From TrEMBL:
Composition skew (Low complexity), residue ranges: 48-59
Superkingdom to which the source organism belongs: Bacteria
Protein name: Nitrous oxide reductase accessory protein NosL
Span list, region Disordered: 38-59
Lineage: Bacteria, Pseudomonadati, Pseudomonadota, Betaproteobacteria, Burkholderiales
Amino acid sequence: MRPLRRRLLWTALGLGGGTAALGASLVSVLAPPLQRRDGLRADGRESPAPGNADAPGPGTEICIVAPPEPWDAASGIARDAPRTPSARSRCPVCGMFVARHPRWAAQVLHRDGQAQFFDSPLHLLLFLQAPARWRPGWQAADLPGRWLADHEDGHWVPLAQAHLVEGSRTPGPMRTPDLPAFADARRAGRHAAQEGGQVRPARALLQALPPALQALGPHRH
């Protein structure tokens, strides 16, 4: 390449000169964004799903960056007892870090002691509809431990005993409608009186989610 043409090319690319800088700039201009295994491009944007975006398939419905966490026998915590999510714990339904929203947290415990954490009660309920969608090989019958964090004090409450507020004006971690959970109907009713909504036993919502909440999942991430 003639010196004059080379200088013009460097100027157009905003470079002062040098073959190393030129090579790096050409790569960034000509090469497509790198694809990560979690479905995000290197620039942080979500990559479009291949083929039909509405077609079912593990490529768009399984979060490979939210693995279950094994039970540590040396922790002193019983295998069937609820655990505190770590800073690395992520929700398999939406990919969010669970520990950032402790009053919304939820978890399930597998028979083998593995724990899977969720950023909200709604995402736990969505997961329990079809666990194998997000965690291949898991079935609802293999998940005897099901816990929700009390929205007031953060204590773990068994799902079967919890009361949820449907239609609350308080948005969940995804900034969308969710289901604040409480240990008893009295506290749930106090929240509903302040933030709107109606108190529902968690068992009832486990059997059937309202269409408006069902439409919020699953997510791509």
